[in-house]
Amino acid sequence: MVTDLNDLQSASLIINTFNSQLHLTFTTIAGDNLAASEIA
Prior knowledge:
This protein has one domain (2-39). The chain is built from two helices and two strands, in the order αββα. It has helices spanning 2-11, 33-39; strands spanning 13-16, 21-24. The protein has a two-stranded antiparallel ribbon with strand order 1-2. It is elongated.
């Protein structure tokens, strides 16, 4: 599963629509309450 998520993050997910393409990827930030408050 981790390998699949890493591949998705580096290559993105491409969805073809009727007149365009959507490129999707993700980002995860993990931290405790104090660290998360500093990011926001």
